[in-house]
Specification:
- This protein has 3 domains: 296 residues, no CATH class; 113 residues, no CATH class; 59 residues, Arc Repressor Mutant, subunit A (Orthogonal Bundle), CATH 1.10.10.410.
- 39% of the residues lie in helices and 19% in strands.
- It contains 15 helices and 16 strands.
- β13 and β14 form a beta hairpin.
- It is of the alpha+beta class and 489 residues long.
- It catalyses: L-aspartyl-tRNA(Asn) + L-glutamine + ATP + H2O = L-asparaginyl-tRNA(Asn) + L-glutamate + ADP + phosphate + 2 H(+); L-glutamyl-tRNA(Gln) + L-glutamine + ATP + H2O = L-glutaminyl-tRNA(Gln) + L-glutamate + ADP + phosphate + H(+).
- InterPro entries: Asn/Gln-tRNA_amidoTrfase_suB/E, Asn/Gln-tRNA_Trfase_suB/E_cat, Asn/Gln_amidotransferase, Asn/Gln_tRNA_amidoTrase-B-like, GatB, GatB_C_1, GatB_Yqey_C_2, Gln-tRNA_amidoTrfase_suB_CS.
């Protein structure tokens, strides 16, 4: 149970949050009921079929791949898959909806109840919470109005009209902005693992309607508002925070919260009224007469189930079983591209714990510095594996490995090739190491005397001087052993 509370003039209040996430099915390049393209950024009205434009006599035909991807998504959320489902018409007038209705699913959705387990705090295994999913239904998107193209008119772009959406409706189980943020991030991760949606919130292929109400802790549910089309995790959390405070002020001043649809203004950090909230009966839902019910056979369901990849929670547990610390395992599985890269690194023979530490520190540090995502990394997983194996077999010290990695980033060459070209191999030659130790001790006779009189902390100074004399190429273990023997001999 969350201990998040908002302080008001009359005491503490609890926030109740539910999310309706609209995820565009990006695994197919065509729309839900037509073959029109769905590429982001196309010129307005260049991806519109006669069906999308609602020309008379045009009949919708369900896209099998869209249905398959929605079923796979439901399975990944451990949700009930309804072998029988039906499309309904949601009737309303808007300029970007040429049909005058949206084809959706109200009464018999494709996917029923499931749940998502989240870590509210990634560093705390005890912060796990299960958030219920009420349903996933498939529906077509509407077009888009463009208000900034003309001084006195709005233009209509129907490229998005008919695009396939999964609406993933949560239960009102979240009690803080942090819980909602964790849920949305986890949901996005699962969708990207499954491959049904690319999760790109900036491009609008994933967006959330945020339902917020407040109540005295443990009391009756309050009246909720719905803030539409929020397109980032950070904004979802900001909406919850702002809307909770706004509703508490209204209630504490003796007013009533109005059930309405609101919009979020990210520049001002506030929500504002869009329209009064409609109920289902306002849309006059009825079964779509142009579409037969969807009936899924066992063979189709089995193929969907068999096609699912290893999902983030299972992958995290596998990594932990390999000795990778829980936090590192969580970071490495939070994004599908990182997880795939790291799996390829493990396949190269790298020791799991060392590989995880190196990836989280050296690789992520370099990518952040270069402002690159892992799919654009100049160093491949196979090349990283070669570098780590050279560290493991003693060819490279940690210091030399950092030098080699920097050269790999700049040149794209493999670690072994760089070591050979530049003579960066670590040496364990005791004769050469002994000679350098003798030189360092002779040049620092005063410090040798201090060490022998009890100033043990100087040992690190001697190690550093020897490593410097050998340009970082000496095996640190051998240096430590030979130096100690000479100082204490």
């Amino acid at each position: 149970m969350s201990d998040y509370r908002v302080k008001g003039a009359t005491g503490e209040w609890e926030v109740v949050v539910g999310l309706e996430v609209h995820a565009q099915i990006t695994a197919t390049a065509s729309k839900l009921f037509s073959g029109a393209a769905t590429a982001f950024g196309a010129e307005p009205n260049t991806q519109v079929s006669l069906i999308d434009a609602a020309m008379p006599g045009m009949l919708p035909v369900p896209n099998r791949e869209c249905i398959r991807q929605a079923v796979r998504t439901g399975m990944a959320l451990e949700a009930k898959i309804n072998a029988w489902s039906r499309f309904d018409r949601k009737n309303y007038f808007y300029a970007d909806l040429p049909q005058g209705y949206q084809i959706s699913q109200l009464y018999h959705p494709l996917v029923g109840e499931g749940e998502v387990e989240v870590l509210v705090d990634e560093k705390d295994e005890g912060s796990a919470k299960r958030i219920g999913v009420e349903r996933i239904h498939v529906e077509q998107d509407a077009g888009k109005l463009m208000h900034d193209q003309h001084a006195s008119m709005s233009y209509v772009d129907l490229n998005r009209a008919g695009v396939a959406l999964m609406e993933i409706v949560s239960r009102p189980d979240m009690r803080s902005p942090a819980e909602a943020g964790a849920y949305l991030r986890k949901l996005r991760t699962i969708l990207r693992y499954v491959g049904s949606c690319d999760g790109n919130m900036e491009e609008g292929s994933m967006r959330a309607d945020v339902n917020v109400s407040v109540r005295k802790p443990g009391g009756e549910l309050g009246t909720r508002t719905e803030t539409k089309n929020v397109n980032s995790v950070r904004f979802v959390m900001a909406v919850i925070e702002h809307e909770a405070k706004r509703q508490i002020e209204v209630l504490e001043e003796g007013g009533e919260v109005v059930q309405e649809t609101r919009l979020y203004d990210p520049d001002k950090g506030v929500t504002r009224t869009l329209r009064s909230k409609e109920d289902a009966h306002d849309y006059r839902y009825f079964p779509d007469p142009d579409l037969l019910p969807l009936e899924l056979d066992e063979a189709f369901l089995e193929e969907c189930r068999a096609s699912l990849p290893e999902l983030p929670d299972a992958k995290r547990k596998r990594y932990e079983a390999l000795g990778i610390p829980p936090y590192n395992a969580s970071v490495l599985t939070a994004d599908v591209d990182i997880a795939r890269w790291f799996d390829a690194l493990l396949e190269s023979g790298a020791e799991p714990k060392a590989a995880a530490n190196w990836t989280a520190s050296e690789l992520f540090g370099a990518l952040n510095r270069l402002e690159l995502t892992i799919d654009r990394s100049p160093v491949s997983a196979a090349q990283a594996g070669e570098l780590l194996n050279l560290i493991a077999d003693g060819t490279l010290s940690g210091t030399l490995a950092k030098q080699v990695f920097e050269i790999m980033l700049e040149s794209g060459k493999g670690a072994a090739e760089i070591v050979e070209e530049r003579g960066l191999k670590q040496t364990s030659d005791t004769g050469e190491i002994d000679a350098r130790i003798d030189e360092v001790l002779a040049a620092n006779a005063d410090k040798v005397a201090e060490y022998k009189s009890g100033k043990q902390a100087l040992f690190g100074f001697f190690v550093g001087q020897v490593m410097k004399a050998m340009a970082g190429k000496a095996n640190p273990k051998v240096v430590n052993e030979r130096l100690r023997a000479k100082l204490e001999g």
